[in-house]
Amino acid sequence: MSNQFEVTHGQVEPLGSSVTDGGVNFALYAPKATQAYLCLFDKSGHSEILKVAMSINEGGIWSIHIFPLNAGALYGFRVEGEYNPKHGQLFNENKLLIDPYAKDLFGEFTWSERHYGQMPIGTKSTVNNAIDIPKSKVAAPVLYAHKKPNHRWSNTVIYECHVKGATCRHPEIPKYLQGKFLGLSHPSFIEHLQSFGITAVELLPVHSFISEQFLTGKGLQNYWGYNTLNFFTPHKDYLVKDDINEFKQMVRELHAADIEVIIDVVYNHTAEAGNDGPILSLRGFDNLAYYRTVSDRPDLYINDTGCGNTINIDHPRVLQLVLDSLRYWVEVMGVDGFRFDLATILGRSQSGFSASHTFLQAVAQDPILNKVKLISEPWDIGPGGYQLGAFPAPWREWNDQYRDVIKRFWKSEEGIIATVAKRLHGSFDIFEHSERGPLNSINFITSHDGFTLADLVSYEEKHNEANGEQNRDGHSANHSFNCGVEGFTNDPKITALRLQQQKNFLLTLILSKGVPMLSSGSEIAHSQGGNNNAYCQNNRTSWLAWKDSQLNHTLTRFIDDALKIRRAHSAFKHSVFLDDIDERFTVRWFTEEGVTMTDAHWHENTRQFLMYSLLDKQNKHALLIIFNASKKVISCQLPQSPISAPWQMVLSSVNNASVSSNNDAMVEISAQSSWVFSSNLEEVGHG
Fold first, then answer.
1. DSSP string of 3-16?
2. Residue 355 DSSP SS3
3. 545 closest CA partner among 529, 568, 563
4. What element of type H or E holds 363?
5. CB contact at 8 A, 338 and 345
6. Which of 256, 317, 459, 677 is least surrounded by Cβ atoms within 10 Å, i.e. has the fewest?
């Protein structure tokens, strides 16, 4: 079979496979290997038709050029070298390895003992795993050439969603598109997003991923996707015709609707798991380069992720792999930004986290990456793992301190009013020290991880029994409340209160300074039945229902109304924190008597009431926002409007709410309710 091909030395760049000169060039990094082989497969992916030795080059790069060969060819690598687990060396030529730079994959992954390096333990496995592993597939990527929305952070509203769960039950989307990338860009789903003001979708992981073996053994799947197999290929289950260009088509159609695409990326660990994990890709090329190990125990992985292994971002080639992947998703696949799972790991070296870590510096100076949206999840379980506020500009950060204190406030906890006020106005105590502003805070109440918004007000305990871990998994400190009954109820008073509380959360989120992020289903009261860790629930627990009652839902319309207020008032677009001498904006805080709050008021532990005004002197527009988290009605004296126009009630979480518009009116503020009044709203739109 080898005489059908012309085999030459090949080029060391780019890594991976690249179509050139009527053939394909292959290059891989494996500096400690004694020999690397390219293996070609037939169209079925079952038969290995060629195994040919590659040539070693400077810097530990192996290369080869095969002619004739075209895009679509299936291949893998085998690497020979020392197999000594105690020394961290795991070379095993019997294991077919996925190209770390593969742009496409062919075939399914199947768990079997063939993937393991030692079988039984202590004995090097001689079993070929090729039948159970996807083959790398040669692709000829083309740069994304369509116009991008490029929304400013000040105009951004994020909708975090799962590719499958968002559309797989949507009645207006054709069956063959439901749960696929192209389902997300179907006109009916785009119309839904536009109907309540979404400017960006943030997709849970779309890189190729597999389910952990402990899940498949229980008949479950990794639904969320935080178990990456390859950093370049779109997850095949989300494709209709196994064509990776469908992802790009989705992006193009969302862009045409003025909606950006942010993807959740997992560069902190891979699916190769811990010391007892399989050999699938990186581990077989250079285990000690790609993964962090204990300094004097190369056989032990550092597990700052809780998933068994931790990517060694300090290594130049690993750093290159991550950066090359990021640029690929921007330049070729067209995405507008990234949310980095457990991002602290990407800024940690052996000496700890640093805002000047090589990765963060590399991104900052990269002419492609420093222009896209960068969002960190600023924590992990490693030493010094909590780093909220420590990332450098232009990074944005998930603000869990915002999330938690707002939950506690609407749970009617006492003694937190001052902290709530800080969060409402952009968390200056977290971000201002590093010369960043309120728009560096990604504010959210719920996300994929934890209770849904509907469950947050329906359950006080997690109910994760279906996950098969005796309800031990998932967070216990949820700051949730059930409004009187645990779980589903037909009691009209409880259901009305739950709806009102969901509106309270949404109005607080949208009218807080920072960038608001909504989790999918918040707009239609999606429930997971109290499961607050539905990572393995690839079923109706997680999938949005889209019943007739949920189309054009009350909450959807409420979000739209709240976002219209946000867009109309320029204070929410202001990129710096407001202070007492701000020339344009003024914020004032009031008691229920309508007088300015004093230090004594701020320290009243029993206070659960906040009223404040936001004045835009340039546009002569003011808002008055009232939050009553207490369980009693409060008679409130509205303060004098700072401009000549009287206060007009524009939105409330209370159903069918109405009040007098007179400035001297006493207003009855319902228990556990939120209110927005405006002066001169019709003149807004110039800022």
1. GGSEEE---S-SSE
2. coil
3. 529
4. helix 358-365
5. no
6. 256
- Does the 577-683 domain belong in CATH 3.40.630.30? no
User: Does residue 377 carry a catalytic annotation?
Assistant: yes
Instruction: Judge whether 157 and 131 are in contact, CB under 8 Å.
Output: no
Residue in 264, 286, 336, 341 annotated catalytic: 341
3-state SS, residue 200: strand
Q: Which three-class secondary structure state does DSSP give residue 588?
A: strand
Strand order in the sheet with 135-137: 48-53, 35-41, 74-80, 135-137, 105-106
* CB atoms near residue 116 (< 10 Å): 18
H/E stretch holding 429 reads helix 428-431
Architecture of the structural domain at 2-137: Sandwich (2.60)
From-to residues of CATH 2.60.40.10 in the chain = 2-137
> What does the alpha-carbon distance between residue 337 and residue 289 come to, in Å, rounded to a whole number?
27
Q: Which helix (H) or strand (E) holds 676?
A: strand 673-679
Whole-prediction pTM value?
0.96
**Which of 560, 563, 554, 555 has the alpha carbon at shortest distance from 512?**
563
pLDDT along the chain (687 residues), means of 10: 85 97 96 98 96 98 97 98 94 97 98 86 88 98 97 98 98 97 98 97 98 95 98 98 98 98 98 95 97 95 96 98 98 98 96 95 98 98 96 97 98 97 97 94 98 98 96 94 97 98 98 98 97 98 88 93 96 88 90 96 96 94 97 96 90 85 75 95 38
Q: Is 272 considered catalytic here?
A: no
Q: Which of 99, 272, 286, 377 is catalytic?
A: 377
Q: Name the strand (E) or helix (H) holding 213.
A: helix 213-216
CA distance 592 to 633: 11
